């Protein structure tokens, strides 16, 4: 397939592009800079210049493709309304372009805030509805297009997609540990995150694009629940720092923006996804990556 990918030079997207090319797909990547364009070309992908605000460019990329994978997001933590609007506008533009074609449209989604007190299941619907909700309610918006002849697949990524070079949530926790001289968890450290190795994540994206039924919610998850205390202990062991508990009220000052997420239960099951795609994770675990120096 000729696959149009947004976010194809990001942490997850670059692995997805590599895997798609390796498995015989043609890739066209959206690139907003010369550096991104060069990176895509070096991977053997075609380049479409533009960004998330260039809706005409996004529409053209989707129109010319056999399938679309939308991974880009502004992630503007200082202005979440702008990120939410850009996400919703991009998803709506892509979906409108694909109406009646039955072409695959896979979009990235998260696991934060879906349920509390148990692992999130693929059958759990997102409570984010409408333009003012998390990520602009993009997952629910996209799934409305199943009835309009678009093969929509939601890819719900674990909060930690880890590996050498990861600059996401765990990297922020490592930075906080170095800054304060202690590796901390919040409260009793019982909150837990799902996790997946970056290369496993790329494989699930490709398998889902090729074979997941329309309307599927895929959980790109290898480990269902790694407690925040286990994460902090691994960081402390690797850095040679003491491990401490901090009160929830002090978490924001200690961790920065990531405190909100480190205090949430974002565990998730991927049993249905594994069965549907005949997928078994093969990458290293999150703790193994931390101890091996992936965040050095």
UniProtKB/TrEMBL annotation:
Residues 7-93 form the NAD(P)-binding domain. It holds the Pfam family NAD_binding_10. It comes from the Bacteria. This is SDR family oxidoreductase.
